Amino acid sequence: MRIVIWAIAKKTAPGLEEAISEYEERLNRFIPMHTELIPPAQPTTDFQAARRIEADRVLQRLREKDYLVLLDEHGKAFSTSEWAAWMTERQMENISRLIFLIGGAYGVDKQLKQKARLMISLSRLTFPHQLARLILTEQLYRVFTILHHQPYHHES
């Protein structure tokens, strides 16, 4: 299994990209992972059309053995320990890529919500994709340090 983070976005600020890269490098010690930026729709006032365009771009990239997880403020909230247990279960499945999707500025089309195997929440707050990528990457690293009995996470 590989982990892939897809973000519907143009670019990331250099300072945040450096922080994200640091956690990606750490995470790659445990599991192959990388990030792909998916081009967003052109700026528009027709949010529904923009969401459909972005959904099509995502759906074209999906493969049969992919497991799509959508980040959404209305998704399931995990504690870090619960997320580690969930990840253990995914590692026992025949998954090629575990894909975490961070939606674009216009939100996510209902077609992607239906296609997702799980929707998770990093918070009830809405974050720009750059911060969501940083938080997600750090949390994935934290989960894998738990799974590999590394002293990064301190459970109370």
From TrEMBL:
<keyword id="KW-0489">Methyltransferase</keyword>
<keyword id="KW-0698">rRNA processing</keyword>
<comment type="subunit">
    <text>Homodimer.</text>
</comment>
<keyword id="KW-0808">Transferase</keyword>
<dbReference type="GO" id="GO:0070038">
    <property type="term" value="F:rRNA (pseudouridine-N3-)-methyltransferase activity"/>
</dbReference>
<feature type="binding site">
    <location>
        <begin position="122"/>
        <end position="127"/>
    </location>
    <ligand>
        <name>S-adenosyl-L-methionine</name>
    </ligand>
</feature>
<feature type="binding site">
    <location>
        <position position="71"/>
    </location>
    <ligand>
        <name>S-adenosyl-L-methionine</name>
    </ligand>
</feature>
<keyword id="KW-0963">Cytoplasm</keyword>
<dbReference type="InterPro" id="IPR003742">
    <property type="entry name" value="RlmH-like"/>
</dbReference>
<feature type="binding site">
    <location>
        <position position="103"/>
    </location>
    <ligand>
        <name>S-adenosyl-L-methionine</name>
    </ligand>
</feature>
<dbReference type="InterPro" id="IPR029026">
    <property type="entry name" value="tRNA_m1G_MTases_N"/>
</dbReference>
<dbReference type="GO" id="GO:0005737">
    <property type="term" value="C:cytoplasm"/>
</dbReference>
<dbReference type="Pfam" id="PF02590">
    <property type="entry name" value="SPOUT_MTase"/>
</dbReference>
<comment type="similarity">
    <text>Belongs to the RNA methyltransferase RlmH family.</text>
</comment>
<comment type="function">
    <text>Specifically methylates the pseudouridine at position 1915 (m3Psi1915) in 23S rRNA.</text>
</comment>
<keyword id="KW-0949">S-adenosyl-L-methionine</keyword>
<dbReference type="InterPro" id="IPR029028">
    <property type="entry name" value="Alpha/beta_knot_MTases"/>
</dbReference>
<protein>
    <recommendedName>
        <fullName>Ribosomal RNA large subunit methyltransferase H</fullName>
        <ecNumber>2.1.1.177</ecNumber>
    </recommendedName>
</protein>
